[in-house]
């Protein structure tokens, strides 16, 4: 473990912790958003999954 800490610079670990926090938060919020959109669309699973599945293509 000590070798790993010495191998990389401090900004790399700051970036790693930031990405870990961001992705964890996004994955928790995605589940809530999927449930909310599914309820707003009256349980239409196909449209809900299309909205969230095609979202990365719009970026």
UniProtKB/TrEMBL annotation:
Q: Where are the transmembrane segments?
A: 28-54
What's this protein's name?
MFS transporter
Q: Does the keyword Transmembrane helix apply?
A: yes
Which keywords label this protein?
Membrane, Transmembrane, Transmembrane helix
Q: Which organism is it from?
A: Bacillus cereus
């Amino acid at each position: 473990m000590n070798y790993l800490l010495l191998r990389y610079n401090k900004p790399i670990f700051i970036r790693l912790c930031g990405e870990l926090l961001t992705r964890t938060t996004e994955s928790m919020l995605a589940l809530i958003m999927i449930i909310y959109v599914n309820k707003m669309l009256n349980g239409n699973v196909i449209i809900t999954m299309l909205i969230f599945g095609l979202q990365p293509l719009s970026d």
